[in-house]
Amino acid sequence: RALFATVDALAAVDFYATHANLASGGKELNPVTRVFTGSTPALATNFALEAGAAIGISYMFHKTGHHKLERITALVNIGTSGAAAGYSLSHR
To answer: HSE (CB half, 13 Å, CA atoms) of 37?
Structure first.
């Protein structure tokens, strides 16, 4: 539960930092996310789907008994979202 809460929290922080940077003339570096930067709802949907996918994949691993992969999936998402949010916040 704590891992999933962290996934959601970092997705929210990453959204906030990315949105703030884009609003002040910044550029999205992720080519996949760049497609969704045209509107705030699209950007929010992108981050929600990213977090949902990480949680869904982790849940699939949990249900199939692959508990290490369950945790690794969440931890990789936490690491990438945390790094992206940190980068965005430091380049405001």
So the answer is: 20
Tell me how far apart the alpha carbons of residues 51 and 5 are, in angstroms, rounded to a whole number. Answer: 10
Q: How far is CA 46 from CA 1, 39, 84, in A?
A: 22, 11, 14
Domain that holds residue 26: 2-90
CA–CA distance, 10 with 47 (Å, rounded to integer): 10
Q: What is the pTM of this model?
A: 0.86
Question: Quick check: 78 and 3 in contact, CB under 8 A?
Answer: yes
Q: pLDDT per residue over 45-77, tens digit each? A: 999 999 999 999 999 999 999 999 999 999 999
What's the number of domains the chain is made of? 1
